[in-house]
Amino acid sequence: MEEEARKLLEEGIRKKLISPGKGEQPTFPNGTKVIFHYRTSLCDGTVLDDSRTMGGRSKPMELILGKKFKLAAWERIVISMKQGEVAEFTCDTTHTALYPLVSQSLRNISVGKDPMEGQKHCCGIAQIHSHHSLGHKDLDHLQANPQPLVFTIELLEVLPPGSYQLDMWAMSDQEKLELVPQIHEEGNVLFKQGKVKEASEKYYSAIACLKNLQMKEHPGDGGWIKLDLMITPLLLNYCQCLLLQDQYYEVIEHCSSLVFKYEDNVKAYYKRAKAHAAVWNEEEARADFAKVLELDPTLEASVNKELKAMEERLRCKQQEEKGRYKGLFDFNTRPAAATTG
Predict the structure, then answer these.
(1) What residues contact 263, with CB distance under 8 A and at least 6 apart?
(2) Residue 143 to residues 99, 131, 336, Cα–Cα distance (Å)
């Protein structure tokens, strides 16, 4: 153990054991899956990230060794640990330069966003020097001022290659492409069973996977367009789930992005019209329903049904508001002035 600590120190990593692990030192061949909690701090003690609290939930990090994870230091330090061990690692700047990008992705994941959201289409080193905001002041400051960081790691589990199911993020590009149709179908089955939330999670997972692949293509190129055409039906299915969960503004946002690219996408206009109607955007809803009829006149009966429902809701709303404010400005109903005896 002392020999390993010495090697780490020579590499610019100082290890401090907090709690010893159990059993023998594991081997870590490529493909080993390690599961650990982490806390990242500045050297003055300021905490940047903590897997136990990030996103309001406790979710440990899962890492597959040998997959060229962007923050190579994490692979290096976990292989010096035993299962159950807790240790603190102070890593110099050569090991921490890419942490702001890694942290941004982890923070996105913790709140259900695309891990690549907010990252420019370039390599990690180029992003460091691009002066592009990461959407978090602490990470922007760290990116502009690289410095040593302290990682407190608790190694929870070590799984040998072949003993676990491969996570999507750890798959090769080809493996991801082959898995997406399966996830899509699983989402469809869940939707038919009425499990809308679970279905939406499947669709979202497939979308995030394809968007990750799309980041490697140049926008507008053949590969990028092919992936975008795969994303579109998944995004429409996702929006249908959001409609059923009353997430109307998110539906408007996603469908607007679709019709911006594909002006003849009837389903996108239709779902956006329903979302507009649900949030009392009458003018926008009517415009979208009109576009639906322009693109596909066979949907007239469905559109008329939705328009009738919207008009009825608007009438009810107006009557409710009229009743609520009735008498508010009726000066003839003022109470009589009090008199003194």
Answers:
(1) none
(2) 8, 8, 70
Q: Which residues on neighbouring strands pair with residue 40, listed in sequence order? A: 49, 151
What pLDDT, on a 0 to 100 scale, did the predictor assign at position 248?
97
**What pLDDT, on the 0 to 100 scale, is given for residue 340?**
46
Residue 206, exposed/middle/buried by CB under 10 A (0-12, 13-18, 19+)? buried
Backbone angles phi, psi at 298, to 5 degrees: -70, -10
Phi, psi angle pair for 321, to nearest 5°:
-70, -35
3 state SS for 116-167: CCCCCCCCHHHHHCCCCCCCCHHHHHHHHCCCCEEEEEEEEEEECCCCCCCC
pLDDT at 324: 72
Give 70 or 153, the one with higher predicted confidence.
Answer: 153
For Cα atoms 75, 80, 85, give the angle at the middle one, nearest 5 degrees: 105
3-state secondary structure of 194: coil
Q: Which residue's structure tokens are 């709140």?
A: 111
Whole-number CA gyration radius for the chain:
27
DSSP 112: T
Confidence (pLDDT) at 245: 96
**Phi, psi (rounded to 5 degrees) for 316:** -60, -40
Cα distances (Å, whole numbers) of residue 313 to 123, 240, 279, 280: 51, 21, 11, 9
Confidence band of 341 (pLDDT split at 50, 70, 90): very low
Q: Check residues 253 and 110 and name the one with the higher pLDDT.
A: 253
- Residue 280, SS3? coil
Amino acid residing at 219: P
Q: Give the pLDDT band of residue 125 (cuts 50, 70, 90).
A: very low
Quickly count: other Cβ atoms within 10 Å of residue 286's Cβ: 16
Cα-Cα-Cα-Cα dihedral of 244, 246, 249, 251, to 10°? Answer: -10
Residue 34 Cα to chain centre, angstroms: 22
Task: Give the chain's mean pLDDT.
Answer: 88
Helices then strands, counting H and E runs in the chain, come out as 13, 6
Q: What is the mean pLDDT of residues 221-230?
A: 95
